[in-house]
Amino acid sequence: MTEKQLVVSADGHLLEPTDLFLTRLPKPLRDRAVWEEDFEIEPLVEGGARIFRRLHTPGFEGWTISRYRQTGGRMPEGDPEQILEDMDLDGVDVQVMHPNLSLFGLYSDDHELSMAHARVYNDYVIERFTPYFSRVAPTAPVPLTDIDDAVAEIERVAAAGFRAILLPATPPKPYYSREYDPVWEAAVANGVQIFIHTQTGGVKVNDPASTTLKVVMESAAQVNQPMTEKSASKRMITQCIYSTVVPQQIMCELIGGGVPERYPELHFSLIEFNANWLAGLVGAMDKCWVTGIGQDPDWWLGYWDDQRPADDQPSMAQLFRLNEKWPYPLKPSEYVKRQFHISFQDDPVAIACRHITGLSSLVWGNDYPHAEGTFRGSRELIATQLEGVPADERAAIVGGTLAGLLGMQAPVPA
Asked: What are the start-end ranges of the E strands in 310-403?
């Protein structure tokens, strides 16, 4: 009999109580709390969704979604017992879970407000989900706007049983900054790994509409209008180019900043970016530091200053010599293979490129319970997209890599 494969989803979302922050933030901050309200309407299309949820938070005020999955079965809620039922339905043994709509309020330019939200959220998870930590692996959001506070929160959540922390995709300072070294040191010392989720960070509390909200509003407008040559082009540019810039920048900053070299025990999981872009990135990162076959290393380029002598031209250089200045012992692609894990949902190109990117750099996630995820279809997706992939490689992608990283095991049958 074939042994059951451990399935660990890298990307799930914990649906917070709509009034969590309104009721738990320090009273002076509650008028700026992230909160949500539900409302019900007649379906906009026959047989469609009735229940909608509107978000209130700086930068995303008015962001509105129909409640997830309400027309295809029982509507998911944030109750842990229901989450376990949904995991069983979807064939998921362990679910890594991140905040849901509160993600948009956890990483703003107001440190006091962001950190207060993070502490409330982390306290709620500790109270509600600790008995379920064997199957639900929540990430603890940690704002980076104050390093001492970040370190203290890392120590606090690690002591409470968290195995991972969640950092913003758009940090207040670039990730190559040495100012973050105490954060990396605290993560290593406390045995937690780093997760970074798409569409987090960069929120300005005085900005009425974030870039993400503007993109969503534009996409909705495109759905409700005839498709034009311009809108077809713009959609592909947004989805295929702009959406891949942030994860590539994160990886270049961390690797170029020497973080994986200085902290080889630390792993970085980038969540919900898909991974079809990863093969091109690792190739391009390595190419930055190699003079290719046939290229002329003696070629000079720059600006010649007639006011200076020929042997004193600081603006002229043998440009290919820059390729020789890589400061670390491993190639960029080797750090990726050793310490980076990129989650995908539905991405056959990423799977096809797994031997270029490194097998452990790919981890699967169902994005539970989001509409763009694979919940209720994950068994079919895994069977289809990993068809023909050797069993050991398949096992690593769908669960083995993350289970090893987080110290998770297959649940014992009741």
From this structure: 316-318, 340-344, 362-364
Residue 315 has pLDDT above 70, yes or no: yes
When pLDDT is averaged across residues 235-257 and rounded to a whole number, the result is: 96
Q: Which of 115-124, 176-185, 221-230, 389-398 has the lowest mean pLDDT?
A: 221-230
Closest CA to 80 of 127, 118, 11: 127
Q: What is the pTM assigned to this prediction?
A: 0.94
Q: Which residue, 372, 403, 382, is CA-closest to 12?
A: 372
- CA–CA separation, 281 and 61 (whole Å): 35
Does pLDDT of 62 surpass 80?
A: yes
Name which of 149, 157, 169, 101 is nearest 126 in CA terms.
157
Helix (H) or strand (E) holding 355: helix 354-357
What's the rounded Cα separation, in Å, for the pair 319 and 134?
Answer: 54
Give the separation between CA 118 and CA 399, rounded to whole angstroms: 28
Q: 319-336 burial string, b = 16+ CB within 10 Å, else e?
A: ebeeeeebeeeebbbbbb
